[in-house]
Amino acid sequence: MNTDAIIKVENVEKHFKGGEIKALDGANLEINKGEVVVIVGPSGSGKSTLLRCLNLLEVPTGGRILFNGTDITDSKVDINIHRQKMGMVFQHFNLFPNMTILRNMTIAPMKLLKKSKEEAEKKALGLLERVGLADRANAYPSQLSGGQKQRIAITRALCMDPEVMLFDEPTSALDPEMVGEVLDVMKQLALEGMTMAVVTHEMGFAREVGTKVIFMDEGRIIEENTPEEFFTNPQSPRLKDFLSKVL
Amino acid sequence: MVLLPLSAGEWFADVKKDFIQSFIEDDRWKLFVEGLGITLEVTALSLVMGLAIGVVVAIIRSTYDQQHESMRGAGKVLLKIFNTISNIYLTVIRGTPAMVQLLIMYFVIFASSRNTIMVAVLTFGINSGAYVAEIFRSGIMAVDRGQMEAGRSLGFGYVRTMQYIVIPQAFKNVLPALGNELITLFKETSIVAMIGLRDLTKAAINVQSVTYQAFMPFIGIAVIYLLVVLILTRLLGVLERRLRTGEH
Ligand SMILES: Nc1ncnc2c1ncn2[C@@H]1O[C@H](COP(=O)(O)OP(=O)(O)OP(=O)(O)O)[C@@H](O)[C@H]1O
Ligand SMILES: [Mg+2]
C-alpha cells in the first residue's frame, strides 16, 4: 500500500432505490498527501456522490474507503472523529445564518477540539485576514456576497485544521464576477500543500492547479491522468466528447 | 342588573353598586388577584412542560423521518418504538377535547389526589406538548438540509448538530407559532374551574354565586384575560425582534 495515500477508495458503490439508480458503480481512487484531485464529468455522472462518500455524508452501499489506513465505512468506526480531519465546502455555502461569521468559524473548534474562545478566535481572525475578510468577523452571513460567503465557508472548514479539503462545485452558485476570488483562495490553499478533492466545471482551475484530473461518467471513473495529458491527450471517446463541449 | 328600562342615572348607580359588590365588598378583588395568580401559574408550568415534551417528541419524529433508513441495529428498533409511542400520543391528545382530558385526569387517573394544581398542570402540559411537537417538527423540517450536512461535515454528531445548529434555527422559525400556543394555553386554562381549582374564572363564578350579580365579575375577567393576552402579544413581538437582529 502506498503510505502516502490519505484517502483510498476501493470498489465503492452507491445505489439508490434498491439498486435502481447506480450513482456510483465501482469507483477506485487514491488521493495522496498534497495532491489536488479535480473531478469532472457530465451532470448526474456521480461526482457529488463520490465526493460525499469520502466523508460518509453518503454511506456507500458497497466497497471500502480508507482514511489514513482506517476503513471508515466500518460501522464500528466513529466517523465524527475522522470528519474533523476532512473539511468540506458546499455549492450553497451552508453557513449558519443565525451566527456571526466569527461564531460560524469558532463553534466547531470550541465544542469539538475544546479550544478556548480566545484561541479559536485568534485562529479564525488570522484566517479571515488571509482571505481579506477580517472586517466582516461580526457580520451575519446574510450581509455578505456569495463570493464572500464561500471564502468564509472555506475558512470555517480550515479552522478545524483538516488534512483534506473536499469541494463540491464551490463556484457554481456564484455570479461570474465572484468566481475568481474563490478560486484564488483555493489556489493559495493548494500552493500551501493542502490535499484537496475538487468537483468543478472550471477547467482552467483543473489545468492550472490540479495534480490529477479524473473524468466520471455513469457512476464510473473513466479516465485519470495528469492535467497536461488529460486535456491534450484524452483517451476515451466520451472524454473527448465531453472536452469538446466544455472547452 | 337589567339594562333597558332605566334612566342613565339609575343605570350608572346600578353599575356602581354591582362594581362595589363584586370587587370592593369583603375585599373580593383579592379573589380575582389570587385567581389570576393561579391561572398564570398553571399556564407557566404547563408551558414549560409542554415545551419539554414537544421538543422531545418533535426530535423523535423528525429524526425518524430523516434517519431511519440509514440506521442499523438496536438504535433503529428503539427509534421506531419511540416514534410509534409519539404518534399514538399525538393522535389521542389532538383528537380529544382538553376538557375531557382534564376530567379523565381528575376523576379517573388522579381520583385519589386533591392536588388540583398538579392535575391541571399535567393535563395542560401533556395537552400543549402535542401541539408544540407539531409546531416544532415543522420548524425542524424547514431548516435547510445543508445545515445538518455542514454540521456533520465539521465533525458534530447527529445530536450535537441538532442541538447547536438545527434546533436554534427551528426555534426561531416557530417562535410566532409558539407564541400563539402560549396564548391559546392561557385562555384554555379557564376550564380548570370545572375541577374546582380557584383560577380567575372560578373567582368570578364564586363571586357571582354570592352576590347574584353576573355582569361585573364576568365582564371583569373578560377584560383581565384580554389585557393579559395583549401584554403577552406585545412581549412576544419584542422577543421575536430581539432574536431577529442581525439576520436577514
Ligand atoms: N439521494 C438520492 N436519491 C436518489 N438518487 C440520487 C440521490 N443522489 C443522487 N442521486 C442520483 O445519482 C446520480 C448521480 O448524482 P450526483 O449528484 O452524484 O451527480 P453529479 O455528477 O454530482 O451531477 P451534477 O453535476 O448535476 O451535480 C444521479 O442520477 C442522481 O439523480
Ligand atoms: Mg453534483
Q: What features would you describe in this structure?
A:
The complex is a heterodimer of chains A (247) and B (248). With 247 residues, chain A is of the alpha/beta class. Chain A is built from nine helices and ten strands. The longest helix of chain A is centred in the C-terminal third of the chain and has 16 residues, at 176-191. Chain A starts with a strand and ends with a helix. The mean pLDDT of chain A is 95. Chain B has a single domain (29-247), classed as MetI-like fold (Orthogonal Bundle), CATH 1.10.3720. Chain B is elongated and about 75 Å long. The longest helix of chain B has 39 residues, at 29-67. Classes of the chains: A alpha/beta (247), B mainly alpha (248). The A-B interface holds A 55, 57, 59, 75, 80-81, 83-84, 86-88, 90, 92, 94-98, 100, 107-108, 111-112, 140, 142, 156-157, 160 and B 70, 72, 144, 146-147, 149-150, 152-157, 160, 164-165, 168-169, 172, 246-248. The structure holds adenosine-5'-triphosphate and magnesium ion. Magnesium ion is lined by residues 47-48, 169 of chain A.
The dominant shape of chain B is elongated
Span between N and C termini of chain A? Answer: 36 Å
Mean pLDDT value of chain A: 95
Q: Which CATH class of chain B? A: Mainly Alpha
Number of domains of chain B: 1
Strand order of the largest sheet of chain A: 6-7-8-3-9-10
Judging from the principal axes of the Cα atoms, what is the shape of chain A? globular
Multimeric state of these chains?
A: heterodimer
Annotation field: number of helices of chain B: 9
The CATH H-level homologous superfamily of chain B: MetI-like
Brief characterization of the structure:
The complex is a heterodimer of chains A (247) and B (248). By secondary structure, chain A is an alpha/beta fold.
